[in-house]
C-alpha cells in the first residue's frame, strides 16, 4: 500500500498533492490527487470524493475545478481519482472517448478484455479509501461524501446507492443518471458488463432506485445549456425515480450553463459547503 | 476594431468569453479573454487587467487562476491578454521559452526582426483598452487596475509606472522586478531593445523607480519556495527601490508557495478584493 508523491503544491493554505501507487483492483499503476486543507495537528478531517467525467484524468478538476478555497474554508479533504486504468497492457480503443481509457464508468468489468483492469468501482469504493486511510492520518474515514461530474456524477450516485450508510452525502454536477438507456453509455456498459442488460441495473442510478436502493437526499446541479442534457443526462428521469422512492432530490436547473468546468467551478463551493454541513451533523 | 467571440461560457453568474481580433500594434490576429461578472442593465464596471507569465497564453489563468468567483462578488471585469504575438510570419525561437512567442515581456521591440510584431506594451496599454471600451459597453475605463504574474507582474508594474494616473491600482504575483539584470530576461531585452542597456531602463520596474517614476502603492505576493526567487525575481530589489522612493509597497512573503497557478489562485481573491476597494474610492 505504498504511495509515491509525484507533486506537492502549497495552495489555499493546504497542500495539493498528486500521488501514484500500484492498484490491485486495476492491476496497474494509478494516479490520484489529494487536497489536504490547513488543519491543526491531530485534527481529523472528512473526506470528499470527486469522480470526474469522460476523457478526464485526476488533473482536470484539480486544475479547473476551483475546489481548494471552499475545501480550505470548510476543512474537507478532496480526493480526485483517475477515470480509468491506463498504460501498457491496459485494453483501450484510442479513437473512442466513451470506451476504455478515460471512460471506466466506475463499474467492475466482467467481460474480456476489460475485466483484467477495468475495476474502477472496487478501486474508488474499496481500494483507494483504504490507501487514503493508511497514508493520510488526518483523514476521518467515518465521514465520507462523494460527488462528481457527468460520468463521475453517475459514479457518485452509484457508489452511494450501492453502499447505504457509507457516504454521509452525495451530490452531482450534470450526472448521467440512467446510463443503461443512453446512447453514449450503452456501448461501454455492453463492453464491460456483457449483453445481458439485467446485469447493468446495479450500475445505473435510476435502475438502482427502481430496484429498491435508497438514499436520504441528493443535490444535483444541471446546466440548461448543456449540450448533453436531452440525450445523455436527462435529470428528469432521476427526479421521477426519486419522487417514486421518496428520496429528497434537490435538482437545480442552472440557466445558461453548459457541461464545462466553467459550470462545475461555479457551483463547486456550494456543493462543498453542502457536504460540509452534513459532515458536521 | 471588430472582435469575434470564439467561446462564451456562463460562469459564476457572469460570462467568460474568448475573443480574437486583428491587432494593429502586433500586426497579427490576437486572442484575449474577458470575464464580465453579473451586473444590472446599464451598470458600469471597473476593468482589471491580468498579464500572464512566460509560456502562457490568455487561457492559463482563465482555466487555473480562479478569478471568477471574486470578480463576480466584487463586480469587476477581468481582461486576460496573450503574452506575445503569434502565428504565421511572427518571429520566434521555438526552442527558447524566454524569447519570442509566449515571451513578449510587454515591451515595444525596436530591433529587427522583433519590431514588426512584438509591440505588447502598446497592445496592452493602448490598443486593447480601446477595443474593450468599444466592445464592452459596461466597461468603465475610468476605473482600471492592472496585475499579473512573473513576466506579467513585470508587465503590470511597468504599465503602471509608465502611466501615472491611468491605473487606480497595481499588484503582482511573483513579479520580475528588475529584468535588466536577471539572466532569464536579459537575452529577450537585448533581442527586442538592442545592446544599449540604457534603453532597457524604461522597461524595468526598479530602474523606472530609480529614474523617478512613482506610484502611490503596490501589493506583491511572493512564494518563499519559488524556484525563481533568488535569481529571477528578487523582490527585495523592488523593496529597496520603493523604500528609497517612498512608494508604499506591501510585500508579502508566502511561506511554502512556489511559482505555479496553485500559488496564484491562492491569493487571487485577496488581490481582486484589494483592487476592488480602490475602484470604490
From TrEMBL, chains A, B:
<dbReference type="InterPro" id="IPR014186">
    <property type="entry name" value="S-formylglutathione_hydrol"/>
</dbReference>
<feature type="active site" description="Charge relay system">
    <location>
        <position position="150"/>
    </location>
</feature>
<feature type="active site" description="Charge relay system">
    <location>
        <position position="226"/>
    </location>
</feature>
<dbReference type="InterPro" id="IPR029058">
    <property type="entry name" value="AB_hydrolase_fold"/>
</dbReference>
<dbReference type="GO" id="GO:0046294">
    <property type="term" value="P:formaldehyde catabolic process"/>
</dbReference>
<protein>
    <recommendedName>
        <fullName>S-formylglutathione hydrolase</fullName>
        <ecNumber>3.1.2.12</ecNumber>
    </recommendedName>
</protein>
<keyword id="KW-0719">Serine esterase</keyword>
<dbReference type="GO" id="GO:0005829">
    <property type="term" value="C:cytosol"/>
</dbReference>
<dbReference type="GO" id="GO:0052689">
    <property type="term" value="F:carboxylic ester hydrolase activity"/>
</dbReference>
<comment type="function">
    <text>Serine hydrolase involved in the detoxification of formaldehyde.</text>
</comment>
<comment type="similarity">
    <text>Belongs to the esterase D family.</text>
</comment>
<keyword id="KW-0378">Hydrolase</keyword>
<dbReference type="Pfam" id="PF00756">
    <property type="entry name" value="Esterase"/>
</dbReference>
<feature type="active site" description="Charge relay system">
    <location>
        <position position="259"/>
    </location>
</feature>
<dbReference type="InterPro" id="IPR000801">
    <property type="entry name" value="Esterase-like"/>
</dbReference>
<dbReference type="GO" id="GO:0018738">
    <property type="term" value="F:S-formylglutathione hydrolase activity"/>
</dbReference>
